[in-house]
# Entry
Amino acid sequence: MSKYVLCFGEVLWDTFEDGKKPGGAPMNVAMHLVQQGVDVAFASRIGEDASGDELAEYLKKNNLLTDLVQRDPNLPTCEVTVELDEHQHATYIIPQPVSWDNIQPEVALVESAKNASAIVFGSLACRDEITRDTLLNVLNETHALKIFDVNLRAPHYTLNTIETLAARAHVVKMNEDEAALLIGGSKHSLKEQIAEFRSKFHTTTICVTRGENGAIVWHDHEFYESPGLPVQVGDTVGAGDSFLATFIAGLLANEPMQSVIDKACAVGSFVASKRGANPPYDERILTLLGLPVK
# Structure
């Protein structure tokens, strides 16, 4: 694997009323990158239990099970309860501690980080100091493009941790609610909030998603906007992750930013129209992304 994206963080079972599905933002991003033809390495930790065995089988089937997926003899595999409101927007009940709270700085992980083109990480896996310290050590050892998916899950974050991660990132992706929470202050427009965030953290690229209203990106000293696409929502699980994967793929391919954000919004809308985080792409999305139609 010559050029690849390292996705670091949680993997888990999303448990719905009608069953459970593999999930976790870093894994979802990895899955969508794979669908888009991008080489991926995935780093996480699962328990030595039946749920972990099932997840390992799923990751193996999808070419994501490597020696970067650690096994924990003591902490369980994570099983999250997903609650959907009347608009099919998801909230999550996440247990603690679980296996991915204990990701270790093993040699294979450090070496993978050194050779990656980009590293994707979020805030949830950094709620515990062990995994957080592992990530910070890994980020110190690499020259890869560092991409921070803010992805706040209350109460599993602190402002100090978010600021620490943002300060190390070249690219930061967040939604409107997260932008308002993290920036706040006297600035009212979203562009002013983004400018304030950039002045504080000196981030190269800042992306703020706006749900059905698309997204706005600050990149290379310019703003880019995409209005998004109206959809009948299946559920919102994984929509932001698919947006981020598409954004990363376009960024690494040096596509024009307007094209990148438009495609990312289209894929995010498609996933929001389906149940689950990783639906197979249909002919329209494959064509949009320039991928072979199956």
